[in-house]
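User: My collaborator sent over this chain with a note saying "see what the structure looks like." That's all I know about it. Can you take a look?
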Amino acid sequence: MVNVAIIEDDVASAETLKGFAEKYGKEKNVQINVSVFNNSLNFLENYKPVYDLVFMDILLPDVNGFETAKKLREYDKSVLLIFVTNLQQFAVKGYEVDALDFIVKPVFYNSFVLKMDRAMNLIRQNESREIIIKRAVGYRKVPIKSICYIEVIGHKIIFHTFEGNIEGGGSLAELEKRLEEENFLRCKNCYLVNLKHISSIDKYDVTMTNGDVLKISQPKKKKFMNAFAEWLGKGNYL
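Assistant: Without extra context I'll predict from the sequence alone. Here is the result:
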């Protein structure tokens, strides 16, 4: 399933985008779930990074689309973002918040399909990165992007995901090695965090996008902060 959010205060425009997304899903045989928000505050309130793609109107009544996108990136650095605007000259600012593309109003289905095709190619690439968790009985496949952090409690490994916590087996050292290329770092012996889901760092506290606050241990702080700074230097950001 592909989860799409539409943030649009104009009811007719929102319905058009929703209808286009549903039509696209039927034509391409893709299950698409669409959520519509009529302002940015409703969208950001209790936000959880469960969306694959967001269509964002730029001229929103409360907080404009650019400011909303900046706040969105604090919670979710990987969701694809397409701005919707009737002012094409504003669209280039979208790249400041890592927008994938923009689409100009009035939106026509042919142009919508071109944007969706591009987005779907990237979504499929992201979906292909999964980890298989060994459980007490059987196995479970989980998208890596949905893992906020991994915690060891006693002899248990807890995967904190946005769909709930999953108890698995193995060792944190083994997982650290497997997930090194996916930008997971240890901030403490018992925590392996997904850098994409760090909301903020304050001294020895790491706040994750799910709201959990984890501790950085003194022995690991220098290595953790250096690695995090290097990751930010590659074009990632808080």
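A starting point for your reply to your collaborator: The radius of gyration is 19 Å.
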